[in-house]
Amino acid sequence: MNEKAIVINNLTKKYGNKIAVDNLSLEVNKGELISLLGVNGAGKTTTIKMLTALTKADAGKAEIYGFDVEKESDKIKPIVGISTQDTAVAENLTVRENLKFMSDIFYENSMDADEAIEKFGLEEYRNIKAKQLSGGWKRKLSIAMAIVGKPKVLFLDEPTL
């Protein structure tokens, strides 16, 4: 039997009268890769926000590796990585400082910042402040920051902006 990484049952989110996510149910096994596709406003980002405990569902339930997203968010955050659609990097920190901050502050057993720099081909930008990077390099840094903690589940929202 496959281990369930994500289990979603009837997840619903409304913003006023607008239904952003309507009774979504889904199971994802460990090791599987899925993609949420849809037009703008289809609820992809809202779903990711609910699964990462950044916003509460109005109804339904979601679990990540058996942990209830709403009730046990403290147990979910260390095993989940997220790169949001708004590239979230600390502009005044260098590439290395951004990665070190993420690995030291948010994750236990994370990869070393220098290891992440090498894995993502960021060597020549190691000591460059994030605000000096092009949009593409900032995006790459943001994804590296999501992966530096060696998450069991990784969410990439609009990874190709």
Q: Which term fits the overall shape? A: globular
What amount of the residues lies in strands?
15-25%
Task: Provide the number of structural domains.
Answer: 2
- Helix content range: 25-40%
The Rg value, from CA coordinates, equals: 17 Å
Number of strand segments: 6
Mean pLDDT: 92
Poorly predicted regions are none
Taking the sheet with the most strands, its summary is: 4 strands, antiparallel
Terminal Cα separation, in Å? 37 Å
Total of DSSP H or I helical runs spanning 4+ residues: 5
What is the CATH C-level name of the largest domain? Alpha Beta
CATH architecture of the largest domain: 3-Layer(aba) Sandwich
Order of helices and strands: EEHEEHEHHHE
CATH homologous superfamily descriptor of the largest domain: P-loop containing nucleotide triphosphate hydrolases
Structural class: alpha+beta
- The largest sheet has its strands arranged as 2-1-3-4
Task: Name the descriptors.
single chain; 161 residues; alpha+beta; Rossmann fold; four-stranded antiparallel beta sheet; 27% helix; globular
Task: Briefly characterize the structure.
This protein is of the alpha+beta class and 161 residues long.
Walk me through the structure.
The chain is an alpha+beta fold and 161 residues long. 27% of the residues lie in helices and 25% in strands. The protein has 5 helices and 6 strands; from the N terminus they run ββαββαβαααβ. The strands form 2 sheets. A 4-stranded antiparallel sheet has the order 2-1-3-4. A two-stranded parallel sheet has the order 5-6. α3 crosses α4 (113-119) and α3 (95-106) runs parallel beside α5.
